[in-house]
Structures are given as C-alpha cells and as structure tokens.
Amino acid sequence: MDIISIQPVSILITIANIIILYLILRHFLLKPVNAVLEKRKALLEEEKNRAEQINEEANEYKKQYEAKVAELKANEKETMAESARKAAKEYDRILLDATTRADEIIADANKKAEMDAKNRQAEKDRELADIVAEAAKKIAAASSNAQVDRSLYDEFLNKAGEDDLE
Amino acid sequence: MNLREKLIEELGVKTLFKIGPVAITESVVNTWVLLAIVAVVCLLLTRNLKVENPGKRQLFVETLVEWLQNVTKGMLGEHAIGYAGYIITVMVFIAISDLSAILETQVAEGYTFMKPPTKDLNVTIALALASIVIVETACIFKKGFGGYLKSKTQPIAIITPINILEIAIRPLSLCMRLFGNIFGGFIIMELLKCLVPFAIPIPFSFYFDVFDGLIQAYVFVFLTSIYIGEAVE
Predict the structure, then answer these.
(1) Per residue in A1-58, pLDDT tens?
(2) Across the interface, which of B42, B51, B123 has its CB nearest the CB of A40?
(3) What CA–CA distance (Å, rounded) separates A13 from A99?
(4) Phi and psi for A127 in degrees, rounded to 5?
(5) What is the ipTM of this complex?
(6) Mean pLDDT across the stretch B101-128?
(7) How do B22-25 and B105-108 pair as beta strands?
(8) What stretches of chain B show up as alpha helix (H) in DSSP?
(9) Distance CA A157, CA A151 (A)
(10) Which residues pair with A163 in a beta bridge?
(11) pTM for the model
C-alpha cells in the first residue's frame, strides 16, 4: 500500500463528488433558503410600500386637516370681528336708549319736582289766604284794640312761620 | 505491529472494493458518506421553511446561508458573484472533510470511518484541478479565447512564460498546501494516538482537525476566489 499515490479514477470520482455536493447544496440548501429570503424581502418591500402609501395618505389627510383648521380659524376671526361689531353696535344702541330714557326720567322728575313746587306754593298761598281770611274774620267779629291787633298779628306771623318751616 | 507499520497502515489510502476496473478508495467512500450526511442535514434544516415567524432552526440555517454567501461574495468581488455557488461548495467540501477527522473510528478490519478525505492527495488534486478549470474558464467566458490568450501576455509580453507556468503552479500550490497541512496534522495526530492514546490527543485534535482544517478550507477558497476575481477583471 502506497502512502502517496496518484489515481486518476479517484481524482475523477472526487470531481464528480464535488459536482454532486454542488447540486446538493444548490437544490437542498441555497435554493430553498434563498427562495424564502426573497419571498420575505418581497413581503417586506410590499409592507414598506403599503406603509409609505398609508403615510402619504396620512400626510394628505393632515394637509386637508390643516387647511380646514386654517379656514376655520380665518372664519372664526371673521365671526369674532362680526360679533364684536354687532356687540359694539348693540352696546351703542343700548347706551343711547339708556341715555335717552335717563334724560326722559330726569326731565319727568324735573317736571314733577317743578309741579310739586308749584303745588306747594299754591297750597301755601291758599293757606295764607285762609289765615288772612280767618284773621280778617276775627277782626271783624271781635272788638278791635291795639292789644288784640298785636296778638292777631303775632298769631298770623307764627302760623305763617310754621307753614314756612313745614 | 510496530509503530512504523502502524503509521504506514494509517497513512495509506486503501482500496476498499472495485466496481469493474474502477478501484474505490476509502477516501471516496468517506466522501460519499459525508455527501449523504450533508444531503440529510440540508433536507432536515430546510424542511417547512416559513416566510413569516421562522423558528430557531430556520433562523440558524438562514444565518448560515447568508454568512456563506456574504463571505464568498466578499472574496469574489462584484464581477465574479456568479461563481459564489462553486466557492461555497469547495468551502463546505474541505471543511466537512477536515472536520470529519473528529469522527475517526475503526469500524472494521481495514476500514477506518472517518479518515479525512483531504488527507488523500487525489482529493486535493481533484479540488485544485476543478478550481483551476473554473478560473481559466471564467477568464475565457469573460474575455473570449483571444482575450484569454492576450491576458497571458499581460502586463508585459516578457512574462508570458511565467503566466503560462502559473496555470500549473497555482493548482499545484493549492493542492500541495491543503494536502501538506492535513496530511501533516494527520501524521502528528496518529503519532500522538500511538504514543498516548488517552486524553492528550483531544486538545491537539481541536487544533489540527478543527482549527487547522477550517483555516485550510478558508485559505483554499480565498486563493481560488482571488484567482477567479483576477481572471474576470
């Protein structure tokens, strides 16, 4: 038995074995595993595309939402301005009404006070007339002397003074 | 049987049987056994592969395949990616052949299961021949026959004889490096087993059978990849 011998048949069989191993690895290992890896890659690509599409849709919705919010904000400003205008108008109207009414009330009150003063003056005049009439009556009815005249005169003055105080 | 006879007995390549005039050596039989094991392992590993929710087994095989493909593609370069399948095959062939020495057991008189097939010079010659045929064929496919002949005169015409010699030197160096390393390791291991059969050979086996075996597989495919890469540049 030789330790080292070259046998062409063994070399050829080994080359055949290498080819067989290549086929085994290709069909039983590399091909199925690569097929799964490719499928997974395609799946991931699909998922990525879908996610991108959803992202785009979300961005579109976001843009729409932002446009709507901006529109609402603009409307809100306009509405607020309109409301402020209306409120100011209403305020002016109410103020004008109130001023007018207050003026009217003041005018009425002044008129009433004037009338009351007139009435009181008239009452006083009447009472004075009554006192004068009564005094005249008493003078006419009683004997007249200086003492009586003086007492009547004092009574008249007292009554007139009480009325003024009242 | 003295040590010398025992060593010669272990180192020799026996013819186990003949099919007509064709002598089948033990390295060929061991290679067939290894191919059968590889086929069964591949079938088991790639059974019920799922695109979603892969199991631990599938993750392992996917990682292994991706690593093998990335390593070979990295060595070959982008122009020679088409030869990744061959490089993976040679890497696996040499790796399993070298690692098979761990399983070495004498199962019958005259037959030891598993002597590493790469210990047989004929196996390493076959690997080197296959590699160099691939390298030269790759060059012819890429550049055409005229371009191939012209490439032998590059970069200057004066080195044409050296380029032609390289056709023989490259496979010879590939073949002898692998054979020398595995054969040398095998001799050391057999000597150790003869002298100290218990415990001591284990760490040496890890170095010569596992570490050196895998390093040789890597060196062989690395050099072959460089040759292919140069050929298709």
Answers:
(1) 567 778 888 899 999 999 999 999 999 999 999 999 999 999 999 999 999 999 999 9
(2) B51
(3) 122
(4) -60, -40
(5) 0.88
(6) 79
(7) unpaired
(8) 3-11, 26-45, 56-76, 84-99, 121-151, 160-195, 201-205, 212-231
(9) 10
(10) none
(11) 0.70
DSSP state of B12: S
Contact flag B8-A1 (C-beta cutoff 8 Å): yes
Local confidence band at B163 (pLDDT 50, 70, 90 cut-offs): confident
In a 13 Å sphere around the CA of B2, the CA atoms on its Cβ side amount to 1
Whose tokens are 């890597």? That residue is B218
Is there a contact between B130 and A15 if contact means CB atoms under 8 Å apart? yes
- Please report which confidence band the pLDDT of residue A96 belongs to, taking 50, 70 and 90 as the band edges: very high
Chains A & B: contacts with CB separation below 8 Å: 118
Bridge partners of B111?
A: B108
Question: Which residues 89-148 of B have a C-beta within 8 angstroms of A?
Answer: 89-90, 92-93, 117, 120-123, 125-127, 129-130
What is the rounded distance in angstroms from the CA atom of residue B133 to the CA atom of residue B122? 16
d(CA A155, CA A130): 13
Amino acid, single-letter form, for residue B134: I
Residues B120, A22: C-beta atoms closer than 8 Å: no
* pLDDT recorded at residue A6: 81
